[in-house]
Amino acid sequence: MTTQSPESSMTAPPGSVVLSVDAMGSDAGPSMVVAGLAKFLKADPEVRVLLHGPKAELTPLLARRRLEGQVTLVDASGVVSMHDKPSQVMRRGKGTSMWSALDSVREREAAVCVSCGNTGALMALAMLRLRKVEGVNRPAIAGLWPSRNPSGYNILLDAGADIRADQDDLLTYALMGTSYARNGLGIERPRVGLLNVGVEEHKGRAELKVAHELISRAAPRAEFEFVGFVEGSEMASERVDVIVTDGFTGNVALKTGEGTAQLLGGFMREAFMKTPLSRIASLLAYTSIRRLRQRMDPRRANGGVFLGLNGTVVKSHGSADATAMAAALHLAAKLARSGFADRLAARVASAAALAQDAGEAEAAPDEPATSKADT
Amino acid sequence: MTTQSPESSMTAPPGSVVLSVDAMGSDAGPSMVVAGLAKFLKADPEVRVLLHGPKAELTPLLARRRLEGQVTLVDASGVVSMHDKPSQVMRRGKGTSMWSALDSVREREAAVCVSCGNTGALMALAMLRLRKVEGVNRPAIAGLWPSRNPSGYNILLDAGADIRADQDDLLTYALMGTSYARNGLGIERPRVGLLNVGVEEHKGRAELKVAHELISRAAPRAEFEFVGFVEGSEMASERVDVIVTDGFTGNVALKTGEGTAQLLGGFMREAFMKTPLSRIASLLAYTSIRRLRQRMDPRRANGGVFLGLNGTVVKSHGSADATAMAAALHLAAKLARSGFADRLAARVASAAALAQDAGEAEAAPDEPATSKADT
To answer: Which HAMAP family does the UniProt record give (chains A, B) (predicted)?
Structure first.
């Protein structure tokens, strides 16, 4: 199963978007998830939601916020905890809210699944229940990074689905990232960069040099612009929309950036609390400081998107509050409306064709032209 | 040659510390290097400096600042440019100021070499002229990262000397980082962390799990504390002093942090320029904002230190101004006074002994116990 007919629920018209939401996994419990749902549904009342979790616990939460009309409960009593290993969850996860939420996407009852549970377990279960799109060897998590671009963000992938990525994976990430930039951020012709330790072509690991060549060759037909190598200092740069890297480097980079922002935010607070004069200043600049805080607010960028599966999964932070949870739900609804999963599958399929063309051009005439993206 | 007698110039008493300085390689030209020297020598007048570069150009610069008494010129007319490839410089670099500056350390005329030239070329030439310390397979660059620790910094290595590092290299980095923390930052019992995508022991690449075991075993005898895996978010953490990783990840992390700090600094400036009220506030908070800027000032942390060579090299930023250049020179003088190069070599030699002990304990009695650190 790679592509869907336009009649499928994945490309449903605005009125009938259905999201599948895992009620459990938030650090603050299911009431936080329901609070986020209420916030989201107030802003986007056309969406219908399948909410997975223990019915007895969730019924009063929904009733209190009068969400019964828009939210349908799906009873699932098991819960995946933050400490469960992915391998355990794959063996014994049936009956959990996470498993149930993914199965609604598998069964095409919902277009996108949203969960704030354990990332490793969610990716393992998603691979098991949704299966990889044909042509994708390693699915990726796409994260958002505050930037000076008009959308306010750059996309980074892989943010940590897999600690490894070879040259073909990196090409696939470029294509999937392009698709996400178009459908998630509305960027018509995304600019893609490959993360490296220098911008010169002789720098970096061997697989990066090959990936540079592969991505460069795919760019014209896949309708993105390849800006070549980018360095860590350009994560927030305006000259790129999508930054491609392996999941180890991507995870370290994202967390380093978050840590740096936290450190500087703390330094700033201390600076403004230091003297009576600076405390007065912080009152005067209250609106400006609030605007600054909003601009850097990680809750606005909540939602790592799993790419390369037959169905879309949005991972919300475990520590997400109602605002952050609502942001993840808005992103999920946007991706559902754009028919994202189908478009991404089509893009990866076209990559296989591209690789095949390249293979044919390079191969001896009597050799079979194998698809690089399938290996 | 691994260790030096205490009589050598490397452990010279305070009065006779000699630094070897490459006058070329600064984006702003040799006048900036001389300005940094003047600033440094005013604060630390006991130091003597060998300054390498074109004599005709440097003589008037020194005369203008009356530095002839403390600075001896060594004529070298060639210059390594930012665009020269390391391989070219290794073949044709003789006669350049960089080569000449390294040779003063090689010949034991100076204890530490300082250069703001091309990093790749400097590392290649340093390996060629100074040679690796016995037991070190891959030298590393140690960078400083602003943190909440009393010293104001955490140490990160490798910051980009080599894009690869295996388990034995990572152990060596832990030992070299410990030695640098002790001699450069004055931390008696450094806490060492290994950078990974999660803190659980089952996470990450295979070589990281082995390195975890090796470093953990070496910690008691090498007198550092191993805190285990740390994540990118902990780069500035107070629970660690030395963060060990491969040069690819380290380079991306450092540059990502720098880029994030720049982005937020820019956002902050914009926030305070936005309204008349916030502009008044920024005037009121002038002292606090200046203090904040100083705390985040990358010039204070100028100086990547090359570790694992027979002699110490401090790499200053090419864009360093006089303040930053002076900071790199102060760091160099501190390392020279502590006899750092000898101490580091002794530490790595003890690691070879440690690995041998471990090898003997594990090996069959009739097998030769080979040193892991030598492979």
So the answer is: PlsX
Judge: A274–B291 Cβ closer than 8 Å, yes or no: yes
At residue A11, the pLDDT reads 41
Establish whether this prediction's ipTM goes over 0.90: no
Coil vs helix vs strand at B91: helix
pLDDT confidence of residue A66: 94
Contacts of B225 (CB under 8 A, 6+ apart): B189, B190, B191, B192, B219
Question: Which uninterrupted H or E stretch holds B192?
Answer: strand B191-195
DSSP A10-41: GG--GGG-EEEEE----TT-HHHHHHHHHHHH
Reply yes or no on domain A1-136+308-342+358-375 having CATH 3.40.50.10950.
Answer: yes
DSSP calls for B295-359:
HH-GGGG--EEEESBSSEEEE--TT--HHHHHHHHHHHHHHHHTTHHHHHHHHHHHHHHHHHHHH
The residues of chain B scoring below 50 in pLDDT are 1-14, 361-375
pLDDT at B82: 85
* Residue B252 distance to chain A (closest CA, Å): 5
Nearest to A249 among B249, B257, B263 (CB): B249
- A253 contact residues in B (CB cutoff 8 A): 232, 252-253, 256
Q: Do B248 and A205 touch (CB under 8 A)?
A: yes
B139-300: which CATH topology? Isopropylmalate Dehydrogenase (3.40.718)
Question: How far is Cα A108 from Cα B143, in angstroms, rounded to an integer?
Answer: 51
Distance between CA atoms of residues A172 and A367, nearest Å: 24
Spatial contact of A310 and A341, defined as CB atoms under 8 Å apart: yes
Residue of B84, B141, B255 to mutate, testing the A interface (most A Cβ within 10 Å of its Cβ): B255
| Same-fold call for B1-136+308-375 versus B139-300 | no
- Chain B nearest CA to A163, separation (Å): 7
Region A137-301: CATH code: 3.40.718.10
pLDDT digits over B89-116, tens only? 989 999 999 999 999 999 999 999 999 9
If phi > 0 it is left, if psi is from -120 to 50 it is alpha, else beta; for residue A243 that is: beta
CB contact under 8 A, A232 and B249: no
Distance (Å) of CA A295 to CA A290, A298, A305, B264, B271: 9, 9, 21, 10, 10
pLDDT score of A357: 61
What was the pLDDT predicted at A12? 42
**Positions in chain A whose pLDDT score sits under 50:** 1-14, 361-375
Domain ranges across chain B: 1-136+308-375, 139-300
